[in-house]
Specification:
Length: 469
């Protein structure tokens, strides 16, 4: 055979070899021999053993790691390449591969084997699907379909909750309402029913009517969608009525995740020996004070008090624990209306930011009264109106406070803090030494946004309401 004929013969053989039909090609299980199934990703019949499948057709869409050989998927430890394909670790392409490798992570999602894609794949005691695709404990109410995460990290049963949703066309204030399907229309009706259940309130574009809590001797827990939710659960008064009024006695009341305002009255008023806790809420644009405490025990944490005409917080008699709060831009005619007035109470004031509060007459910062000393700790007191050169009044004891005036106390400094528009601290700002990584220890383990303190873990604590990540 001469060279030309030999070349033509070889070329024909090569063409024939490249064009033979793939005996493993399939478009459905029916095209495969008995005992085999069709892998629709590769269009090939497989024996049913995921690890033993041979790729006769198109390349694997999940690119294998050519540097890592394998014999079974059990030897593939990289979560991004969990499946052994053609003796190389690669991403998964279907659920069956993940189920075969680990029944506890049976779902293929973005080439990774995961336990869940949404929280619907999870249940108590691990009801929330986290970013790694793992069922975990809940840490926030919006991680639960019931909208209530309990302190143990499980989601509350909807049957143990009273619901309020003015935006639900099926809502009713009739007796027997309060389910997710037929919620109450107004919060007051749910309180009056006194069913002994926590009350979950949906955000609404229409404000809820003011609340009046009498002498019920009840534990009342109100759960809103959050301080900055859109839409928020707004409790509002358009006249001199207080938005949330605890006028009776003997109640333990928690207000968590609400937007509260009163055009001409108080935002929250508490009297009569009640116990009041306000968490993750915004109390603003009130005609008098944001929060007024008169013979109550009060806890405020992660709250924003702003735009109130006669100050953000006042306590005339009772105890207080105020942490991680931003009391800012409360402006009014004065006098005697500082942003924070602790003069009539006893308690703890730590990791708060009191800034840009201006009274036309008098101080805009903090009043401690003339009796027992009030401790102001780990806080920023900055840019508030002054009287006779100070934004403080009375017997205040400062520890680890950044304040823009001459003051004494352990850890007191005067350095301009670098704020964002909403009074968070700016990371890597020129004046970091004012507030960031300044405290060795603190009993407050989170900040205004719920971020754990300190950041980083085992580091130093920041001064003020915000802990920089």
């Amino acid at each position: 055979m001469d060279r030309l004929n030999f070349a033509l013969f070889a070329l024909a053989g090569a063409f024939w070899g490249c064009s033979r039909p793939n005996p493993q090609y399939c478009e459905s299980d029916a095209a495969c021999p008995s005992g085999m199934t069709c892998d629709l990703v590769h269009r090939q019949c497989t024996s049913g053993s995921v690890d033993a499948a041979v790729d006769f057709a198109m390349p694997d869409l999940a690119t294998p790691d050519l540097s890592t050989g394998c014999t079974t998927s059990a030897t593939c430890t990289d979560p991004m390449k969990p499946i052994c394909t053609n003796m190389m670790c690669a991403g998964c392409t279907k659920d069956a591969q993940c189920m075969s490798k680990d029944p506890m992570r049976p779902i293929c999602n973005m080439n990774q084997c995961v336990q869940c894609q949404t929280s619907m794949d999870c249940m108590n005691p691990l009801p929330f699907c986290d970013q790694t695709g793992t069922c975990a404990k809940c840490t926030a109410n919006n991680q639960c379909t019931s909208l209530l995460c309990k302190s143990d990290g499980t989601c509350e049963d909807p049957n143990n909750i009273t619901y309020v949703d003015s935006g639900n066309n099926a809502c009713s204030n009739a007796k027997g309402s309060g389910t997710m399907a037929t919620p109450y229309c107004q919060i007051q009706n749910a309180i009056t029913a006194n069913l002994g259940k926590p009350i979950v309130v949906y955000g609404s574009n229409t404000p809820y009517m003011p609340l009046n809590i009498g002498s019920m001797n009840a534990t009342i827990t109100l759960i809103g969608p959050g301080r900055d939710a859109m839409p928020a659960a707004v409790v509002s008064s358009a006249n001199a009525t207080t938005a949330i009024n605890l006028a009776g006695a003997g109640n333990t009341v928690t207000v968590d995740g609400f937007d509260v305002k009163s055009t001409m009255g108080y935002g929250v008023y508490c009297a009569g020996g009640n116990m009041l806790t306000i968490l993750r809420s915004r109390i603003h644009n009130c005609g008098i004070k944001g929060v007024s405490i008169n013979n109550c025990d009060a806890v405020l944490d992660e709250d924003r008090l702003n735009g109130n005409s006669q100050g953000g917080f006042q306590i005339n008699f009772g105890s207080y624990k105020i942490t991680n709060c931003m009391v800012v831009e409360n402006n009014g005619p004065g006098p005697g209306n500082p942003a924070v007035d602790l003069s009539g109470g006893t308690g703890l004031f730590q990791h708060n930011t009191v800034a840009a509060n201006v009274q036309m007459v008098g101080i805009g910062g903090v009043s401690c009264g003339m009796n027992n000393a009030k401790a102001i700790e780990n806080s920023i007191i900055w840019g508030n109106s002054q009287s006779s050169g100070t934004q403080l009044f009375g017997n205040c004891t400062l520890t680890n406070v950044d304040i823009d005036e001459t003051a004494t106390g352990m850890g007191v400094r005067s350095m301009q803090p670098d704020f964002t528009a909403d009074y968070h601290l700016v990371k890597d700002a020129p004046n970091m030494a004012c507030c960031i990584d300044q405290i060795q220890s603190s009993q407050v383990d989170h900040d205004f946004d719920g971020t754990p303190r300190p950041q980083p873990v085992n580091g130093k604590f920041d001064i003020g309401a915000h802990e920089v990540k």
